[in-house]
């Protein structure tokens, strides 16, 4: 089918193959080959529909500007692949989306759409007076106390107090970003697939590119030494739940969560993913924050972040020409 330039039909056939393999819990060389063919079909679709996908992302941006009343500006990301700063929580008359340059356009389109969907969920929450921001600097003292033994080890190595406090702050921030960020990303990716189906090829290619990469804790062993075991396990559980959700989106064409299957936290990962599946279809405005709270409660990390709420404000007639080009 791929040789006859029929990628859609190829994907439909491969979904059946993955469903059968999942029911039998078997990974064979044939399944591995099927996953490679699935990726090839998505690449064909991404190339063929790139202009339409590009227009869809631009249309998404325009709609959010019109509905939210603030322009969306773009910048180049340097220390992350992509990020969003919305105007409401940053006291700005515009939203800012940043994306790393140098990436292939299909990946940049997905990352941009991902941040725009975050903005969509924030807009819905803002209208309902339920928008909030989290700050790990406001962590309850009990969580800092959990890092006391690590701080003691640092003191024995004659680290100064500023270095110790900085290391604890970074470790708490890393944990808070995972507990807060992964549930939100689960919602965003599920909504992207459901509400912007044209983007599915670039969504798959982007996730296939980025998912195998190590996370922040893997890259920084020092953070792993500072975070106590319960918090490390919580980060692992919520990240694994995210990978399970991505595997679910692609109907077995990916196996990102496989690396966690032998971990002690795998059962908790499945529990968190089941919570997401039960809650996601009915999440209302601001409901993505309720999902974060439920995850934190199940992980024993309620109060890890200080929360600041932002009341609903009237839509402003902002000058959308402020962020060219459009």
What secondary-structure arrangement, pairings included, does this model have?
Elements: H1 7-24, H2 29-48, H3 50-68, E1 72-76, E2 82-85, E3 95-99, H4 105-127, E4 131-135, H5 141-146, H6 148-156, H7 161-195, H8 200-210, H9 216-219, H10 221-226, H11 229-249, H12 266-279, H13 287-298, E5 306-310
Parallel strand pairs: 1-3
Antiparallel strand pairs: 2-3, 4-5
What does this structure look like?
With 326 residues, the chain is mainly α. It has 13 helices and 5 strands. The chain has helices at residues 7-24, 29-48, 50-68, 105-127, 141-146, 148-156, 161-195, 200-210, 216-219, 221-226, 229-249, 266-279, 287-298, and strands at residues 72-76, 82-85, 95-99, 131-135, 306-310. The strands form 2 sheets. The chain has a 3-stranded mixed β-sheet, with helices on one face. Strands 4-5 form a two-stranded antiparallel ribbon. Helix 2 (29-48) crosses helix 8 and helix 4 (105-127) crosses helix 8. The longest helix is centred in the middle third of the chain and has 35 residues, at 161-195. The chain is globular, with a radius of gyration of 21 Å. The two termini are 38 Å apart.
